[in-house]
DNA sequence: CTGGGCATCT
DNA sequence: AGATGCC
């Protein structure tokens, strides 16, 4: 969306004067009428920061265990050292080195498993949040990098700076020997370097993280320059050195945006170095890549990048995956899916939003094409299940998602033949903030839940991305010295509602009610808490078998309760595979986050009739609902065999294949659902959204199946 | 040609 | 639904 029209270089003036003219520019070669309009050179002289944390995973582990600071440390995922601390690097260990090679280089290397990204993810979002509390225009790139557009912050300081003040640079200046720098020629970049230094200091003091920063006039250059002095330093790039830094790149592949495939295609054209590309006729490039891509590539080679810093906000999808050498039985697949879903559902619950789409991805082994070839299938998530996720009935949700996943699995893999998987991924997407339960198709709820993809609301050319968008809609922290600011207003005290709001569902004790600042008219508080009259308990007991004392019943372990309520397992089909799949919902409540935030959801609806006009506003994401997670979960598995009863019919349009693959207790769950479904079928619309959100108070949190219609998901299709 | 994510474009 | 790119 950010392309063609505004793609041309409207870049910084400084660059234009110093560099553009010296390089054979394209327009001459482009004979015909210009395809791209040339934006008016609004001096939107941006100051962009790029932050890059040092060996991020290793840092996090060293914070968790300071003893690791003094030893060579490697973070291991499967057979690979994904990153390592600098002690290890001194001994020759590098990123993405195989474990065997690393151990060879450095026998004393200490390894920490890094496959579970939880801690890294948390720290990563703390970092982004922290930066956002100073300036809302923060864009994430992976877990350890952030871009910031600090133009307005710089301009403000500049305005406060008296004439003829001494400007200086903090940190390095690219291609300068730190003495000959005339900072007064570049006051904005100079101020930017000070802001960068302050932010790095803040990050260090508040989070204990060190990292590099690059200061430049666009994202491309900021990113390229940030890595020039490596651990825990910062570098500023002056416009007159743009061509130098670009020319210093060893190959086109080093240009961010030029990946493996693109580099190969370029090489086929004889293009290897950055200079090659700079001199290559745009027309020829267009033939290979098409207009917009060609122009963008060429611009990148020139150091031109007008792409705005687009606030990232909350993730648009949550996924969990695992890779392995070989997986070839349906049973293994099922267990892996269960495992992945358990953790993913927990994450989703903490997030607070409700996923509307589920996707299953696999990677099949194939001798020829080993490392690519992912395949995926997706389907909508029925509302009942989505609600169980948000309401915290996680095990219930997992139980109901598993059949969905298995259906998708069978759409991809013919399990009657041999198969060989090397990866499974489960993913929630189409994340909906808070919306009430969707009763029907339309209804007011659609107003709340209507999804204008949050990011897309932030599309404007860099032209409009200057101060107006920031000073108008947001406020960067205004203090002259960031370090002062942070000592008073920290993460926990700053108003979370504005973009500084909790980016992620971690921590933070925050009073539920939040002061709202900007854009009052747009807000749609969706906080309509659907308080559920507590009919929850009744339905359980009311269908108790005769001669069971309800009081006694309540005291029984939940598994037993369920068994009493659902004699389903006696079904012949179910019996056929009671052959114990030792399924245990090893539900790990490994983390107990204390805080929860409770923020009224704000959806900003944007008329974006003309994408080129109004800057609108950044999207504010806030986790819906309290979603407090009490570290105590109870449920345990009942591997036990149980009395068999007789009735219980197998519901029609159930895919027997899928069903038969499910673990016995999952089958029981489903059967239980089906049984309870019957009354609903009789009185179609009467009771439906009723319970299901059993507040998971201590005991009965576990798996209580409720009234949900699962039939359709078993329909063979 | 390795990991476990994420995003965007088609 | 896949390809591509980034970390």
Describe this structure in words.
This protein is α+β, with helices and mostly antiparallel strands and 717 residues long. It has helices at 13-18, 56-64, 86-90, 99-105, 118-132, 151-160, 187-207, 219-226, 242-248, 260-268, 274-279, 282-289, 291-302, 330-351, 383-391, 394-412, 444-449, 467-473, 482-488, 536-542, 550-555, 558-565, 572-575, 656-661, 664-682, 711-714; strands at 48-53, 73-77, 80-84, 97-98, 110-113, 138-141, 145-149, 172-173, 211-216, 234-236, 317-327, 354-364, 374-380, 421-432. The strands form 3 sheets. A 6-stranded mixed beta sheet has the order 6-7-1-9-10-8. Helix 8 links the parallel strand 9 and strand 10 (234-236). Helix 14 crosses helix 16 (394-412) and helix 15 (383-391) packs across helix 16 (394-412). It is globular. The two termini are 35 Å apart. The relative contact order is 0.11. Mean pLDDT is 68; it is low at 1-43, 436-475, 484-502, 505-620, 622-648 and 677-717. The chain binds a DNA duplex (10 and 7 nucleotides) through residues 1-3, 52, 56, 76-80, 82, 96-98, 114-117, 120-121, 140-145, 256-262, 312, 315-323, 359, 370-372, 374-378, 425, 455.
Topology:
Layout: H1 13-18, E1 48-53, H2 56-64, E2 73-77, E3 80-84, H3 86-90, E4 97-98, H4 99-105, E5 110-113, H5 118-132, E6 138-141, E7 145-149, H6 151-160, E8 172-173, H7 187-207, E9 211-216, H8 219-226, E10 234-236, H9 242-248, H10 260-268, H11 274-279, H12 282-289, H13 291-302, E11 317-327, H14 330-351, E12 354-364, E13 374-380, H15 383-391, H16 394-412, E14 421-432, H17 444-449, H18 467-473, H19 482-488, H20 536-542, H21 550-555, H22 558-565, H23 572-575, H24 656-661, H25 664-682, H26 711-714
Parallel strand pairs: 2-5, 8-10, 9-10
Antiparallel strand pairs: 1-7, 1-9, 2-3, 3-4, 6-7, 11-14, 12-13, 12-14
This protein binds a DNA duplex (10 and 7 nucleotides) through residues 1-3, 52, 56, 76-80, 82, 96-98, 114-117, 120-121, 140-145, 256-262, 312, 315-323, 359, 370-372, 374-378, 425, 455.
């Amino acid at each position: 969306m950010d392309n063609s029209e505004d793609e041309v270089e409207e870049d910084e003036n400084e660059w234009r004067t110093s560099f553009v003219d010296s390089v054979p520019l394209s327009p001459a070669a482009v004979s015909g009428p210009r395809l791209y309009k040339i934006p008016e050179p609004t001096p939107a002289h941006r100051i962009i920061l790029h932050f890059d944390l040092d060996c991020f995973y290793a840092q996090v582990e060293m914070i968790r265990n300071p003893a690791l600071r003094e030893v060579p440390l490697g973070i291991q995922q499967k057979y690979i050292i994904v990153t390592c601390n600098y002690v290890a690097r001194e001994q020759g260990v590098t990123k993405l080195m195989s474990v065997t090679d690393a151990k060879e280089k450095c026998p004393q290397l200490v390894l920490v498993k890094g496959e579970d990204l939880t801690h890294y993810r948390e720290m990563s979002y703390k970092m982004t949040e922290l930066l956002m509390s100073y300036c809302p225009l923060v864009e994430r790139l992976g877990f350890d990098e952030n871009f910031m557009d600090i133009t307005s912050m710089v301009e403000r300081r500049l305005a406060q700076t008296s004439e003829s003040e001494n400007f200086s640079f903090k940190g390095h200046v690219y291609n300068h020997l730190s003495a000959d720098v005339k900072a007064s020629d570049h006051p904005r970049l100079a101020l930017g370097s000070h802001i960068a230094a302050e932010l790095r200091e803040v990050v260090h003091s508040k989070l204990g993280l060190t990292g590099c920063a690059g200061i430049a006039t666009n994202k491309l250059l900021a990113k390229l320059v940030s890595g020039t002095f490596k651990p825990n330093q910062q570098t500023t790039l002056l416009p007159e050195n743009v061509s130098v830094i670009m020319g210093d790149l060893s190959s086109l592949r080093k240009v961010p945006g030029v990946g493996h495939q693109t580099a190969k295609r370029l090489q086929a054209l004889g293009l290897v170095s950055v200079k090659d590309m700079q001199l290559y006729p745009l027309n020829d490039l267009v033939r290979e890549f098409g207009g917009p891509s060609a122009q963008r590539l060429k611009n990148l080679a020139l150091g031109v990048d007008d792409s705005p810093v687009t606030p990232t906000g909350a993730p648009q999808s949550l996924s969990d995956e695992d890779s392995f050498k070989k997986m070839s039985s349906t049973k293994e697949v099922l267990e892996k899916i269960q495992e992945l879903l358990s953790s993913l559902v927990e994450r989703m619950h903490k997030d607070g939003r409700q996923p509307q789409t589920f996707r299953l991805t696999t990677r099949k082994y194939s001798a020829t094409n080993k490392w690519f070839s992912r395949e995926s299938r997706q389907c909508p998530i029925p509302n009942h299940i989505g609600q169980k996720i948000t309401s915290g009935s996680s095990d219930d949700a997992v139980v109901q998602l598993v059949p969905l996943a298995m259906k998708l699995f069978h759409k991809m893999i013919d399990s009657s033949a041999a198969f060989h998987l090397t990866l499974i991924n489960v993913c929630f997407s189409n994340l909906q903030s808070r919306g009430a339960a969707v009763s029907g198709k339309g209804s007011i709820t659609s107003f709340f839940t209507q999804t204008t993809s949050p990011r897309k609301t932030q599309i404007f050319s860099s032209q409009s991305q200057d101060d107006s968008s920031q000073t108008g809609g947001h406020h960067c922290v205004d203090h002259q010295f960031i370090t002062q600011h942070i000592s008073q207003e920290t993460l926990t005290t700053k108003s979370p509602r504005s973009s500084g709001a909790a980016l992620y569902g971690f921590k933070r004790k925050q009073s539920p009610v939040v002061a709202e600042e900007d854009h009052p008219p747009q807000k749609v508080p969706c906080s309509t808490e659907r308080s559920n009259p507590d009919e929850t308990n009744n339905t359980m007991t009311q269908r108790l078998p005769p001669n069971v004392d309800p009081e006694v019943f309540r005291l029984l372990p939940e598994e037993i309760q369920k068994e009493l309520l659902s004699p389903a397992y006696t079904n012949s089909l179910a019996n056929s595979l009671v052959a114990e799949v030792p399924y245990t919902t090893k539900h790990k409540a490994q983390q107990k986050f204390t805080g929860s935030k409770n923020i009224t959801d704000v959806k900003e609806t944007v008329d974006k009739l003309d994408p080129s006009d109004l800057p609108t506003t950044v999207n504010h994401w806030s986790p819906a609902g309290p979603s407090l997670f009490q570290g105590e979960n109870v449920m345990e598995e009942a591997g036990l065999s149980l009395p068999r009863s007789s009735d219980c019919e197998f519901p029609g349009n159930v895919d027997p294949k899928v069903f038969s693959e499910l673990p016995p207790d999952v089958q029981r769950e489903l059967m239980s659902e089906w049984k309870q479904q019957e009354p609903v079928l009789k009185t179609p619309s009467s009771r439906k959204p009723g319970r299901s959100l059993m507040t998971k108070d201590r005991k009965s949190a576990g798996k209580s199946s409720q009234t949900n219609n699962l039939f359709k998901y078993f329909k063979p299709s």
